[in-house]
Amino acid sequence: MATEHTRLFASFLPVLSGWRQQEPPGLATRDSCPLDFVALNRNAAKSGVTTAKELHRYRALRPPSASQPIRRKQQKSQPKSQPKSQPSTDNTYGVKSRADPPMELLLAHEYGHDWITEQRQKIQTESQRRSATWRPIVDTRTTLLRKTQILPQNQTQPLPRMSRYSKVGAALDTFRDPDSRSRALKALKRDAGQ
Q1: Which DSSP letter does residue 104 get?
Q2: For residues 70 and 34, is the Cβ–Cβ distance under 8 A?
Q3: Which member of 15, 35, 39, 71 lies 3.0 to 4.6 Å from 64 by CB, making a disulfide possible if both were Cys?
Q4: What b-and-e string marks burial along 142-177, b requiring 16 or more CB atoms within 10 Å of the CB?
Q5: Model's pTM, two decimal places?
Q6: If you write DSSP's letter for every residue of 44-112 in order, what string do you get?
Q7: Closest CA to 184 of 174, 193, 142
Q8: Residues 33, 69: contact at Cβ < 8 Å?
Q9: Strand ranges (E), the chain
Q10: Where are the residues of the annotated region Disordered (predicted)?
């Protein structure tokens, strides 16, 4: 009676719901054996996948149908006398971690000394490279003219003045009174050396 009820329910369910019951090709059917997602995740971790987004991309590139399904017969055929191997402590998600550095080297600051010597060697090679590319500065035309031109050390001659400019009167009278004007002209003549 129960099987008859399920057959009857399965026959009119698509008619009532209007859904298509046909699955697209390529998808696993319900009767096929389950897929091995554990192996897929392990392989993803071994290849360096760390985030959920990367795992999603990894699974998109390698669909579960491409992975090997779990075979119950193979699992049952293995003898049970073999003990299960314990996961090693230096593995994290299938990726081995690097070995710990020796404590005596850490305590003796060997890594720090090695780093300092590497930095000194880098600085030394950089300075050698810079000194190899250094060239003396070539004199330009301007620097050559400056070197060859003889400049007077002491100027004994007064600056040349044309007499016609000394006779020209001032266009503006900016002094307050004639006494301040005469004092300014005397100071100018004294400075000019006349």
Answers
A1: H
A2: yes
A3: 35
A4: eeeeeeeeeeeeeeeeeeeeeeeeeeeeeeeeeeee
A5: 0.22
A6: HHHTT--SHHHHHHHHHHS-TTTSPBP-HHHHHHS-TTSPPPPPPTTEETTEEPPPPPPHHHHHTTHHH
A7: 174
A8: yes
A9: 91-92, 95-96
A10: 60-98
Residue type, 138: V
Q: Do the beta carbons of residue 64 and residue 40 sit within 8 Å? A: yes
| Whole-number Å distance between alpha carbons of 168 and 117 | 81
Q: How many CA atoms lie within 13 A of 151 on its CB side?
A: 4
Helix H or strand E encompassing 24: none
pLDDT-derived band at 137 (thresholds 50, 70, 90) equals confident
The two three-digit tokens of residue 95, written as one number: 């990726």
Tens-place pLDDT, residues 43-83: 888 888 889 898 888 888 876 654 455 555 555 555 555 55
Contacts of 192 (CB under 8 A, 6+ apart): 158, 159, 161
Let me know: does 67 contact 40? Beta carbons within 8 Å.
yes
Is 70 exceeded by the pLDDT of residue 145?
A: yes
> Any idea what the Cα angle at residue 14 is, between residues 9 and 15, rounded to 5°?
95
Buried residues in 117-130 as b, exposed as e (16+ CB within 10 A): eeeeeeeeeeeeee
